[in-house]
Amino acid sequence: MAPGAWVNYSIEARTLRQARANRRNARMRAARLLGTHTAEEWAEILDRHNHACAICGIPASELIGGRLTKDHITAISLGGSDAATNLRPLCRECNTAAYQASQR
Q1: pLDDT in single tens digits along all 104 residues of the chain
Q2: What average pLDDT does the chain have?
Q3: Coil/strand/helix, residue 38
Q4: Which domains does the chain have, with CATH numbers?
Q5: How far apart are CA 10 and CA 35, in angstroms?
Q6: CB burial readout 48-82, b (16+ within 10 A) else e
Q7: Which class for 89: exposed (0-12), middle (13-18), buried (19 or more C-beta within 10 A)?
Q8: Are the beta carbons of 73 and 27 closer than 8 angstroms?
Protein backbone atom coordinates (compact mmCIF):
# COMPACT_ATOMS: atom_id res chain seq x y z
CA MET A 1 0.00 0.00 0.00
CA ALA A 2 1.36 3.40 -0.96
CA PRO A 3 2.14 5.94 1.76
CA GLY A 4 -1.03 7.76 2.71
CA ALA A 5 -3.28 5.14 1.07
CA TRP A 6 -4.53 3.92 4.45
CA VAL A 7 -5.53 7.44 5.41
CA ASN A 8 -7.47 7.83 2.15
CA TYR A 9 -9.18 4.46 2.67
CA SER A 10 -10.07 5.37 6.23
CA ILE A 11 -11.60 8.68 5.13
CA GLU A 12 -13.58 6.95 2.37
CA ALA A 13 -14.85 4.27 4.75
CA ARG A 14 -15.89 6.89 7.29
CA THR A 15 -17.67 8.88 4.55
CA LEU A 16 -19.57 5.77 3.42
CA ARG A 17 -20.61 4.96 7.00
CA GLN A 18 -21.80 8.52 7.49
CA ALA A 19 -23.79 8.44 4.23
CA ARG A 20 -25.46 5.17 5.30
CA ALA A 21 -26.31 6.66 8.69
CA ASN A 22 -27.75 9.76 7.03
CA ARG A 23 -29.99 7.63 4.77
CA ARG A 24 -31.20 5.55 7.73
CA ASN A 25 -31.94 8.69 9.74
CA ALA A 26 -33.89 10.16 6.81
CA ARG A 27 -35.97 6.95 6.50
CA MET A 28 -36.69 7.03 10.24
CA ARG A 29 -37.78 10.68 10.09
CA ALA A 30 -40.15 9.80 7.23
CA ALA A 31 -41.51 6.81 9.19
CA ARG A 32 -42.18 9.03 12.19
CA LEU A 33 -44.23 11.37 10.02
CA LEU A 34 -46.52 8.37 9.37
CA GLY A 35 -46.79 7.55 13.08
CA THR A 36 -44.81 7.23 16.29
CA HIS A 37 -45.06 5.32 19.55
CA THR A 38 -44.46 6.20 23.18
CA ALA A 39 -42.49 4.32 25.80
CA GLU A 40 -45.82 3.44 27.43
CA GLU A 41 -47.13 1.94 24.18
CA TRP A 42 -43.96 -0.15 23.80
CA ALA A 43 -44.41 -1.34 27.42
CA GLU A 44 -48.02 -2.34 26.57
CA ILE A 45 -46.80 -4.28 23.52
CA LEU A 46 -44.27 -6.12 25.69
CA ASP A 47 -47.00 -6.88 28.26
CA ARG A 48 -49.36 -8.12 25.53
CA HIS A 49 -46.63 -10.56 24.40
CA ASN A 50 -45.76 -11.50 28.01
CA HIS A 51 -42.26 -10.02 27.54
CA ALA A 52 -41.46 -12.79 25.05
CA CYS A 53 -40.49 -12.96 21.38
CA ALA A 54 -43.57 -12.74 19.14
CA ILE A 55 -42.19 -15.47 16.84
CA CYS A 56 -40.36 -18.09 18.92
CA GLY A 57 -41.86 -17.25 22.34
CA ILE A 58 -38.57 -17.16 24.25
CA PRO A 59 -38.94 -14.90 27.31
CA ALA A 60 -36.74 -11.80 27.53
CA SER A 61 -35.40 -13.09 30.86
CA GLU A 62 -33.74 -15.99 29.02
CA LEU A 63 -32.00 -13.78 26.45
CA ILE A 64 -28.43 -12.54 26.75
CA GLY A 65 -28.88 -8.98 27.92
CA GLY A 66 -32.51 -9.70 28.75
CA ARG A 67 -33.91 -7.41 26.04
CA LEU A 68 -36.18 -7.88 23.06
CA THR A 69 -35.75 -5.78 19.93
CA LYS A 70 -38.38 -3.55 18.35
CA ASP A 71 -39.26 -5.10 15.00
CA HIS A 72 -41.16 -3.03 12.45
CA ILE A 73 -43.67 -5.42 10.87
CA THR A 74 -43.58 -3.38 7.67
CA ALA A 75 -39.94 -2.37 7.45
CA ILE A 76 -39.05 1.30 7.62
CA SER A 77 -37.07 0.82 4.39
CA LEU A 78 -40.28 -0.38 2.70
CA GLY A 79 -42.34 2.60 3.85
CA GLY A 80 -43.51 1.32 7.24
CA SER A 81 -44.28 3.65 10.12
CA ASP A 82 -42.83 3.85 13.62
CA ALA A 83 -46.35 3.59 15.11
CA ALA A 84 -47.17 1.10 17.85
CA THR A 85 -49.42 -0.82 15.43
CA ASN A 86 -46.35 -1.60 13.29
CA LEU A 87 -44.19 -2.94 16.15
CA ARG A 88 -43.66 -6.35 17.68
CA PRO A 89 -41.06 -7.61 20.16
CA LEU A 90 -38.55 -10.09 18.73
CA CYS A 91 -35.42 -11.74 20.03
CA ARG A 92 -32.32 -10.77 18.07
CA GLU A 93 -32.20 -14.14 16.27
CA CYS A 94 -35.81 -13.89 15.01
CA ASN A 95 -35.34 -10.22 14.11
CA THR A 96 -32.29 -11.12 11.99
CA ALA A 97 -34.18 -13.98 10.32
CA ALA A 98 -37.16 -11.71 9.57
CA TYR A 99 -34.84 -9.08 8.07
CA GLN A 100 -33.06 -11.63 5.90
CA ALA A 101 -36.40 -13.05 4.69
CA SER A 102 -37.55 -9.57 3.70
CA GLN A 103 -34.40 -9.09 1.60
CA ARG A 104 -35.18 -12.06 -0.68
Answers
A1: 565 555 566 788 888 999 999 998 898 898 888 899 999 999 999 999 999 999 999 999 999 888 999 999 998 888 999 999 999 999 999 999 887 777 66
A2: 88
A3: coil
A4: 5-102 (3.40.1800)
A5: 37
A6: ebebbbbbeeeebeebeeeebbbbbeebbeeebbb
A7: buried
A8: no
5 alpha-carbon distance from chain centroid = 34
What is the value of pTM for the model shown? 0.73
Report whether 89 contacts 56 (CB < 8 A): no
Burial of 92 (0-12, 13-18, 19+ CB in 10 A): middle
Nearest Cα neighbor of 42 from 91, 103, 85, 2 is 85
Q: What is the rounded distance in angstroms from the CA atom of residue 39 to the CA atom of residue 77?
A: 22
